[in-house]
């Protein structure tokens, strides 16, 4: 079977000159160009600005016809795009400015296509998704809990083990139960990031540490507790030396915050914050020093992550969920205050 060859720009100009200036019929033009009559007929009648208007009112334009043919080829490579230009602009803004993932875009961007369609657009190279960066999702690591069972644990660790954590915390029923972890700089750099993660709302707070020394860790945790009074009931963390020292434990005890430690080599037991750490690493890759990172840049990253719509929250953002909790807490406090005043009166 003979392969089809597209009409060139010069052929389109010949069609225009012969048809409009020399008044040659479309069949004769097809014979001159060694094309079928249907090819020339379709080119003149359908490859133009308004196919619903006669050729006398809006004549065939070879420049526009050549551009339109190129656009149609692009669209055929993508598949038929049912997404409007305005929606594609909103998708591009969500990718480049908000750093949203494709499921977030599919559920929160107005008139956005499904996630499957967006993944197809990404594979085909649609311009709106050219700057999309795939998020890395690692396989769940194999737990070494069985390996570490033979190691003796102190009485304090056994008392505050994650096994002692109440089911109400495990099932994320109430607000105020947090996870805590550190993200280290490149090897040899003392600066690190202290991350807090609220388990129910998935709200995140990031703080910069000059080092992981006891005094710096103590001051950072105390600053966090002062910033969130009556909003921290428990903290779950790992067994790093920066969290298990006496000063930090006394600080949490003074603030009446329960602390629970995961088993050694079991990061999945605080999987929420481990997942958030990967999001943070998206902005601060491994090997980067946190020394020169400003608080403004850190706050910007925190705001971006807290405004990610999440499926587990019904595609609400952690910021919205946490603000709702704060409002309900203030309402309960005002109600309790009024009841106390009425009883005293």
From TrEMBL:
InterPro entries cross-referenced by the UniProt entry: Integrase_cat-core, IS30-like_HTH, RNaseH-like_sf, RNaseH_sf, Transposase-Integrase, Transposase_IS30-like
A GO molecular-function descriptor: transposase activity
Highest taxon in the source lineage: Bacteria
Domain Integrase catalytic: 162-326
Phylogenetic placement of the source organism: Bacteria, Bacillati, Bacillota, Bacilli, Lactobacillales
Pfam family, one: rve
Protein name (Swiss-Prot/TrEMBL): IS30 family transposase
GO CC annotations on file: cytosol
